[in-house]
Input
Amino acid sequence: MKPRTNAEWLRALKSTGNDQIEALTDLRAYLVRAATFALQRRGGGMAAAHLTQLAEDCAQEALVAVLDHLDDFRGESRFTTWAYVFAINRALVAARRERWRNVSLEALLASSPAVPDAADEAPAADPERRVMQQQLTVTLTKAIDECLSDRQRQAVRAVVLESVPLDELVRHWQSNRNAIYKLLHDARRKLRACLEARGYSAADVLAVLDEQ
Amino acid sequence: MNPVRPLHRLLRLLAATAEEEISCSECFELLPQYVELELTDPAAAATVQQLAQHLGQCGVCRDEYEVLRDLLRADAAPPSDLT
Output
């Protein structure tokens, strides 16, 4: 591949003719490399032929996105680093989609899983501390039930307690990352305030869990 | 973070919650220069507090950060080390 400065990348991609075709071919190769790398690390051991095909598909999607956003590139990194992020994003979203394809989020969100008992997660040897852990679990469960909206409660339970990838919730709710992240951020702030109102600072809580 | 201890995870997230946090889109925009900076000048990268804070809260953005960081490291390695 021909080495290019950021300015040369932009000039070639915005030009016509052979320069543009050459730049597009090179850019696509970079994006395939990034998508392949991402799927090799986060693809959960998918078959080689499938990985190759998925990487090609993700690179193609990323190429379209990069070309759509060329004017957003501010030159604060190498152009190829900036472009890599698009391919990595598409590949990781696809890998998560495959991993969670057979999980019903509808059922998971409806099931309202219980908050795990702190004393079960990290049982303290000291009986007094075990009681504190159990009280903490009750307090946190109440805070989740009483301080959060239904939507916030579902998001916290799914993403934080059940490890559902945020992207999967985005897909299920037909939303976007920013909106779900904001929902979770608001929920965290509310929960923290609720715990503080009940006499637990976050640092205190961690100390109860971690100090054995 | 230990995936088998969800309550710990929640409490750690609460402890690290900031009043103002950047969005996933802002993280996406800042990530390329952040990772390049981290690989060349880790001390300077550590000053980008808001991005680091977001990566601590957002699993999907953190995954993207880790893969990009590892990819740039692989790009910088001798050809025989590329996988």
Observations:
- The two ends of chain A are 57 Å apart (CA to CA).
- Residues 6-99 of chain A form a domain with the Rna Polymerase Sigma Factor; Chain: A fold (CATH 1.10.1740.10).
- Chain A is about 75% helix and 0% strand.
- The longest helix of chain A spans residues 18-42.
